[in-house]
Amino acid sequence: MAEAVRDALDDRGISRSKVCGAIIWVHSPHRQSVLDELNRVLNPDARVLQLWGSAAQDPREVMDNEDRSGRRWRMRHLFLGYHRDSGGSRWLTDGEISRATVLAWDSGSEYASAGQLDPWELRP
After folding, report:
1. What is the extent of the structural domain holding 39?
2. Based on the structure, what is the number of domains in the chain?
3. Pairing, β 82-85 against β 88-91
4. Cis-peptide into 124, omega within 30 deg
5. What's the mean pLDDT in 3-10?
6. Cα angle 1-81-105, degrees, rounded to a multiple of 5
7. pLDDT tens digits, residue range 41-71?
8. Angle between helices 2-11 and 31-41 (to 10 degrees)
């Protein structure tokens, strides 16, 4: 994947030092290698919005285990939860995730949530 990103930038004539941001949603075990590669292609003033799904594990616990050393750019996090209504619980729709992503990107907050994460046991 890292090579594909570099090739795409090169094919478009985009200098790697000019890449000023990224929105990523990467599942483990690939998360660390993607973050390491971002360190090579992003401008030092870049910002990254990392989306965290919650189907398998609580993202708040997973991110605590992430190696954050050596990052030159600003990181923001969007936790994706679920929605409860009278019919029970459901995962967020693509539209809800997209809207939350745009809002999180535009906000100044380091952490944002879409839907709810708690109570954990009520996830779909």
Report:
1. 2-122
2. 1
3. antiparallel
4. no
5. 76
6. 60
7. 888 888 999 999 888 888 888 777 666 666 7
8. 30
Distance, CA of 4 to CA of 25 (rounded, Å): 17
Give the model's pLDDT for residue 67: 65
Element (H, E) at 60: helix 59-62
The secondary element (H helix, E strand) that includes residue 87 is none
Please list the helix, strand and coil fractions of the chain in percent, rounded to the nearest 5, in that order: 40, 30, 30
Q: With a cut of 90, say whether residue 4 has pLDDT above it.
A: no
pLDDT of residue 98: 97
Reported pTM: 0.82
Cα gap 81→51, rounded to integer Å? 11
CB 98 within 8 A of CB 66: no
